[in-house]
Amino acid sequence: MSEPLAGRHCASGAEAALQPVTEDPEWVAIAQIGKTRGNRGEVTAVALSSKPERYQALQEVFLFAPGGPAGGEKFQIENTWFHGATLVFKFRGIDSISDAEGLYGREVCIPAGQRITLDEGEYFESDLIGCEVVDRRTGESVGRVTGWDDGGGSGLLVVDGNLLVPFARSICVSIDPAAKRIAVELPEGLKDLNRP
């Protein structure tokens, strides 16, 4: 689960190229740690939210590592900032390159109750996964959302693992995450275009 990317019909998707470490619905991934930066224990991260202000208010987060503790490991934040487009974290007690190297690849998570408030027309990726996609014209099921691909301007819904549906207002015309339903008006030939 991750936070939204602004300016999209659908909100999330940055982690589509990343392998989630935790899929526990109690946690929300807001970043994934990359390489070290500087020599004071700072680390770069891939931001999974396009709302940069969300990082400024952070005081503590939980880092999840493959094979690590189920609840993650709690870290206090000394500082966060953006260096250009790169998010940088400085965690309390991580004061050297050696300390920071051990954090590579971990997901930076917060409890789900601390997710940010969405603007109208934004959705959490995790709320879209599992939604039934229905052709609005025929009422027939196209399939279920099984993933997200951030490979296009508005992102792509992955339906049944192989159909890519642009998540644009002109195609996804009605979205009801609570009912787990997305009504679509697919362009002619789309089903045949991007199936393997």
Would you summarize the structure shown here?
The protein has 196 residues and is mainly β.
Notes on the protein architecture:
The protein folds into 2 domains: 14-114, Elongation Factor Tu (Ef-tu), domain 3, CATH 2.40.30; 129-193, PRC-barrel domain (SH3 type barrels), CATH 2.30.30. It has 196 residues and is mainly beta. The strands form 2 sheets. It has a 6-stranded antiparallel barrel. It has a 6-stranded mixed sheet with strand order 10-9-8-7-12-11, with no helix packed on it. Residues 1-19 have low confidence and may be disordered. It contains 4 helices and 12 strands. The longest helix is centred in the middle third of the chain and has 5 residues, at 97-101.
